[in-house]
Amino acid sequence: MKQMLSKSAAAALALLTLATATPALSGVADGDIVQVEVLDGGMTPRGTQLSALKITLQPGWKTYWRTPGDAGIPPSFSWRGARNIGRLSITWPSPEVFLTSGYRTIGYHDQLVLPVEITPETPGKPVRLKGRMQLGVCKDVCVPAELSFDHQLDSSAGRNPAIAAAMASRPWSAREAGVRKAVCSLRPSQYGMTVTARISMPSAGGEEIAVIEPGNPRLFAGETVTRREGGQLIAETEFLPADSQPYAIDRSQLRITVLGQNHAVDIRGCSAG
Asked: How confident is the model at residue 140, as a pLDDT?
């Protein structure tokens, strides 16, 4: 048993290394390559405040989605120093799929507007959005970058077209995409657990690429293999543990994103099968 757990940890470490690998890593990005700006979007009818992080890259450069694909640096955030934030949610626009040095990566090129919706801890009081974003940016080489931002939101601001466009480009929900059913089966693999999702849904257009996220920070997902059988999309991946501790997979926490040529689809949770 100890030998099996040791192999599992080694496999998870190897996957983590692959997930954060880059085709060619060089130095640290400077301010000429990537910059950040905080946009104001004003109040929403729900009483929340809308903002966005506008990431501007030099032409030809790209950065990564929350799940970067076979290789890349997943973005991470620190909100230290922020004030009057009770709850914060990020809306990711639908990403693109790139082929970089033989690796399939997922992200954005030239510019990314990342909407941030904030529920104030104390309604009516000023909200200060302060923090740091760590991300990877790539062109001929890939470099890590850290962007700092500090902005007091303007609650009287009007509709921001850039934020509205980013919100509109989010993946469709399962209902919007006509997903009838999503069933996930689990079976033990040599080092972890294989997850097979069978999704009854219309085509998202062209070649469909699915990404399955475990919803558990102690698990890492390998590449998802996707195929279509008529009205059913079948996606399979392997989850590997980061350590030798016991773990559980909660199907309701699985998140499946289908990236098609016409649109993307965001499916939250699946039933047993």
From this structure: 82
